[in-house]
Write a structure and sequence with these properties.
The chain is α+β, with helices and mostly antiparallel strands. The chain has one domain (2-261): Endonuclease/exonuclease/phosphatase (Deoxyribonuclease I, Chain A), CATH 3.60.10. Helices cover 22% and strands 27% of the residues. A six-stranded mixed β-sheet has the order 3-4-2-1-14-13. Strands 5-6-7-8-12-9 form a six-stranded mixed β-sheet. A hairpin with a 7-residue loop joins strand 3 and strand 4 (68-72). The longest helix is centred in the middle third of the chain and has 19 residues, at 121-139. The relative contact order is 0.16.
Length: 262
């Protein structure tokens, strides 16, 4: 059963519901995973999505912060949510498709501005979240699974606009990159996006501070699609839907798409 999947940090699903509807109309992924929904569960919009065929929704909500949602045209089963690092945040939700594939949607903490957990609690939370993910994968090796989301780390040198200038900037520091690699290796996850697009700079986030973000192009690849090793070869057609970043009142992230032939 081939299916397409998208992941997108929407930066408020209620504020940007029209953009989600526009994206669904243009790209029509079978599954859309959203992060940073910034809404309690009972206030998340559903009617407009259902009217477009996305009648299945599983989410983990939180007022004003965090929040993750899985929208699907295909039937899905709620596989729960885990409070990684015991932060009390709505940062994870999981769903299973009828073909047995489990989709994990994550919103890893951004980590604040200082890459030192001794003076920056948020950076420590980020590292703890990744460590908890790593330990979970070591205890329960992922099978027939897809992990997506805003992982808030650009791991490769060509995942940022300037590797040397960003080495001390949170999201690309060596300690974060090492932590993400450990987490990925613990679950034997395959970075689907880079398997499909192995060479060249590739970004999914551009700061609001740059008015002409497209021309300046100082981006980072913070959003990811991973697949467990047993199904990674079924993935293809990955791409960043870059032009979405240029829509009116956009999120600072662009969606990432991938297709799986399973």
């Amino acid at each position: 059963m081939p299916f397409s999947l998208a992941t997108w940090n929407i930066n408020s699903v209620r504020l940007r519901e029209p953009l989600v509807l526009k994206f669904l109309a243009e790209e029509a992924p079978d599954v859309l995973c959203l992060q940073e929904c910034k809404s309690p569960l009972e206030k998340m919009p559903t009617e407009g999505f259902a009217a477009m065929g996305y009648s299945h929704m599983i989410a983990n909500g939180q007022k004003g912060y965090n929040g993750v949602m899985i929208l699907s045209r295909l039937p899905i089963t709620d596989m729960g949510r885990h409070d990684f690092a015991n932060l009390g945040h709505a940062r994870h939700v999981a769903a299973r498709l009828e073909n047995g594939v489990t989709i994990h949607n994550h919103y890893v903490p951004a980590g604040g501005d200082v890459a030192d957990r001794e003076v920056n609690e948020k950076f420590g939370q980020k590292l703890d979240y990744l460590s908890d993910m790593r330990d979970d994968f070591r205890a329960n090796m992922p099978e027939k699974s897809i992990l997506v989301g805003d992982l808030n780390i650009a791991p490769r040198e060509d995942d940022v606009w300037n590797h040397k200038q960003l080495l001390k900037v949170v999201s690309h520091t060596p300690i974060e990159v090492a932590a993400l690699h450990e987490t990925q290796e613990a679950g034997n996850w395959v970075d689907v996006t880079r398997a499909d697009i192995p060479d060249g700079q590739l970004f999914s986030w551009w700061s609001y501070r740059a008015k002409d973000w497209d021309a300046v192009d100082k981006g980072r690849r913070l959003d990811h699609v991973w697949a467990s090793a047993d199904i990674a070869n079924a993935a293809h057609s990955s791409r960043v839907v870059r032009h979405v970043r240029g829509w009116e009142k956009p999120s600072d992230h662009a969606p990432i798409l991938a297709t799986f032939d399973l």
